[in-house]
Amino acid sequence: MSQSPQFYTATMAKLYADQGYLRKAAEIYRYLAAQHPDRDDLQKALEEIERQIADQPAPTRKDTELLLREWIDLLKHIKRQKRRERNRPLDH
User: Fold this and answer.
1) Domain boundaries, the chain
2) CA distance 16 to 39
3) CA-to-CA distance for 63 and 15, rounded, in angstroms?
4) pLDDT tens digits for 30-64?
5) Dihedral angle sign, alpha carbons of residues 14, 19, 21, 22
6) Section 11-38 average pLDDT
7) Are 10 and 25 in contact (CB under 8 A)?
8) Contact call for residues 49 and 25 (beta carbons, < 8 A)
9) What helix, strand, coil percent values describe the chain, rounded to 5?
10) DSSP three-state, residue 2
């Protein structure tokens, strides 16, 4: 999700927010508000996103454990795939 600030737009920030990527949306709105301090709409949008971020419940220990298990399973899957690729005979 890394993008150059030269491509940051209010539309992009809104899309990120609508998809649940509130921190990325806030990053874009912060950048735009700094570039255009006269635009109250950008500052209001940033304030709304920051309020939504603050209102989000912190992840529980169970949520964190579940996420870590998913990551570990994904890493194991990738490791198995790489092992299979290394052991695959070369076709000449």
Assistant:
1) 1-56, 58-92
2) 20
3) 25
4) 999 999 999 999 999 999 999 999 999 888 888 78
5) positive
6) 95
7) no
8) yes
9) 75, 0, 25
10) coil
